[in-house]
Amino acid sequence: MPIDQLPPPEAKQYLDDNPDAVYLDVRTEPEFENGHPPGAINIPVALPGPGGQMMPNPDFLAVVSKVIPRDRAVVCGCQVGGRSQMAASILEQAGYSKLINMPGGFGGLQDPTTGEVIPGWQDEGLEVEIQVTDENSYRGLIRRP
Predict the structure, then answer these.
(1) 81 FRET partner, CA 20 to 30 A, in 67, 92, 118, 122?
(2) Phi and psi (nearest 5°) for 113?
(3) Model confidence pLDDT, tens digit, residues 24-34
C-alpha cells in the first residue's frame, strides 16, 4: 500500500483534524532543536557516524515502537522529505498502517529533475516551536521504559 504524501499545509490540516495523530520528526537532534512543528516528537532515522556521514539509527524502530502505538496515525517529516519517506517505509514494514510522508519537509526542496520548488513547513509560514523537553526529544524518548 503506498504511503500517503501530504505537503506541509495539508499535513498541518491533517494533524489539526486528527488530534491523536503524531508528527514524527526524523531529523537529527540539532536540526530538531533549531525548530520543529508544534507537538512534534524527535526520533532520528539516521545519525551522523564517523566522519560525519549519515548512518541508519539502529534504535529507530525500537524507540518508535515504545512511544507510538501501531494503530496511531503518523506524519513523518524531515528536512526535505527523503529521510521521512525512508522512516515511513520502515514503519510500514513494522506494521504501522496510517502513515503519511511530508514532501518538502521542514526546510523545503527543489526537485532536481523538474526544478519545481516544494516549500517546507517553515517556508509555508506554519507555526514553529523550539521547545525541547524529555517528552519530545530523542534523549528523553530513548530513556522511556
Answers:
(1) 67
(2) -80, -50
(3) 999 999 999 99
Q: Which residues of 68-96 are buried (b: 16+ CB within 10 A; e: fewer)?
A: beeeebbbbbbbbbbbbbbbbebbeeeeb
Contacts of 1 (CB under 8 A, 6+ apart): 92, 97
Q: What one-character-per-residue DSSP string does 89-122 give?
A: HHHHHTT--SEEE-TTTTT-EE-TTT--EE--TT
pLDDT of 18-54, one tens digit each? 999 999 999 999 999 999 999 999 999 999 988 889 9
Q: Classify 140 as helix, strand or coil.
A: helix
pTM for this prediction: 0.94
